[in-house]
Write a structure and sequence with these properties.
mainly alpha; Tetracycline Repressor, domain 2; Four Helix Bundle (Hemerythrin (Met), subunit A); disordered N terminus
């Protein structure tokens, strides 16, 4: 087979649109990451010049996008065989793998450097740690090796409140650590709800997600278990006096809603293997609610601390 010419390679790269390069950054995932980082920055004691605050949030967004781009570069083989991801720019042939990797590395290095210059070294180190954890620990080590991949790997998405807080204060205190723990416990039930209705994709790609390895019934039980652990943890900022009644009331109401969604997933009519007899509706509904849950929980904290 003839090697591609430089002209054909150039034509392939020219097919990539701005939207393709944006897709490499996983903008939907980035939204929650940026928002939780923003809340960490807003509720931190002290003041940060508005220009530097914007720079810090942009750095968090760029770092999250950089990690997403490197993840897409590394996972291009499995993305190509999964229906949910086969249209991504790299498996679809619109962006070359090496270009995507270079793009991610440059963005990652730039975001950490700018964070250090705009805020402080602690925030920059935490930002670098979040990128490294997502790329090396989750993507390259855990994802293809263990069904606990998302349990441990979920720490990568829990860094933003720490980073936002450290950007203002230059350190880390109990409240941002609680926010880290909340996102850490939120991630498994959130992602397992997705995995329940995408298990065929994961099985086809050879990814040992929990429904593929342990089955749907065990996954449903784990979703409820982690939600039961998450709800009392989410109340700790109020119980410890780090937040007021606005947050406490929101955390209680949202927690009850999440528990109800997880209970519906568990009680969904199933066959002997635990496979839903009514389709993917309960798992999809719980997945969508989990996103709303985290957004509103952090929004309530910001409102409580700033105006309560």
């Amino acid at each position: 087979m003839a090697e591609p010419t430089s002209a054909s390679a150039g034509a392939a790269l020219s097919a990539a649109s701005a939207g393709d390069w944006l897709a490499l950054l996983k903008p939907r995932v980035m939204t929650l990451v940026v928002f939780t980082g923003l809340v960490g920055l807003l509720v931190a004691p002290g003041r940060l010049h508005p220009v530097l605050a914007v720079a810090a949030i942009v750095c968090i967004a760029v770092a999250a996008g950089a990690a997403g781009a490197i993840n897409m570069w590394y996972d291009r083989d499995i993305d190509a065989v999964m229906r949910r991801t086969c249209r991504r720019p790299i498996p679809a042939g619109r962006i070359e793998p090496a270009e995507a990797l270079g793009f991610g590395i440059v963005l990652a290095a730039g975001s950490v450097l700018v964070m250090a210059l705009a805020t402080n070294l602690v925030a920059a180190v935490l930002l670098a740690a979040s990128i490294a954890f997502y790329v090396f620990v989750y993507t390259m080590w855990l994802k293809r090796r263990t069904p606990e991949n998302i349990v441990i790997g979920g720490a990568a998405g829990a860094f933003p409140p720490l980073i936002g807080w450290a950007a203002v204060t230059g350190g880390v205190q109990p409240l941002p650590l609680l926010l880290f723990a909340i996102i850490f416990l939120w991630t498994p039930p959130h992602f397992w709800c997705l995995a329940l209705w995408a298990d065929g994709d994961y099985a086809r790609a050879g990814i040992p997600m929990l429904p593929v390895v342990a089955g749907a019934r065990a996954t449903r039980r784990r979703i409820l278990l982690y939600t039961l652990l998450l709800v009392p943890l989410s109340l700790l900022p109020w119980a410890l006096g780090e937040a007021g009644v606005v947050y406490g009331g929101a955390a209680a109401a949202l927690g009850l809603g999440f528990l109800l969604a997880a209970w519906r997933v568990l009680r969904d009519r199933q066959d002997a293997r635990g496979v839903s007899l009514t389709g993917d509706a309960p798992a999809k509904a719980a997945f969508r609610f989990s996103i709303v849950y985290l957004f509103l929980l952090f929004a309530a904290l910001a409102v409580d601390r700033l105006y309560g």
